[in-house]
Amino acid sequence: MNTPAATTAIALNAIPPALAPSGNSSSTGADGQAISLDAHRAEFARRRFLAMPLAGTLAWVVVGVAGATLPPAQATLVLYIATGCIAYLGMLISRFTGEHFMDRSRPKNPFDALFMSTVGMAVLVYSIAIPFAMCDSSSVPLSVGILTGLMWLPLSWVIQHGVGVFHTVLRTLLVLTAWLAFPQHRLTLIPAVIVGVYLVTIVVLERRWRMLAA
After folding, report:
1. Which of 82, 88, 90 is nearest to 47 (CA)?
2. Which spans are transmembrane here (predicted)?
3. Calculated CA dihedral for residues 131, 135, 137, 140, nearest 10 degrees
4. What is the pLDDT at residue 116?
5. Dihedral over Cα of 110, 112, 118, 120: its sign
């Protein structure tokens, strides 16, 4: 019978090398010098992080306007389209904020891949929102509003700043409160709440970036 230690050793040996834990948490830069994971994290954390919240703000403004002027079915369709375009709009805006998401010439940073994974996670949550909406169409602002905001939590950990926790927690609480308390205004009030949280987030991120650049 295998001992616990032997069982653990067998399990670790079964892990593919790319996934196995390693004491060498470094990669190689363009000049051939080793770059530690901490250095990558520090470089990533010095970025501006303005393009994506701007894109989110614009998208939810469009949703709010649609909710105020269109029938619920059409406004819901606008919600799906507008929020689904946030990542692409962020890539476009990044060209003007200096972030340049699609710039292939800058050194690779593993936290870029982590960030894009959180964006992909936000897109995949539509697989929860759509079936829920088939039972209750008014659930769309709630499910999309909360689930797409979860990507801010890992960002907060990576950059070691509480702005992501603030954004996710406050957004979740306010969206849920608005959905429960004002059922007749879900397609207008929830977008307004999310835009408000985005605006505060943008101010905090911009101040943080300017302090780091000083």
Report:
1. 90
2. 49-69, 75-93, 113-134, 140-158, 165-182, 188-205
3. -40
4. 84
5. negative
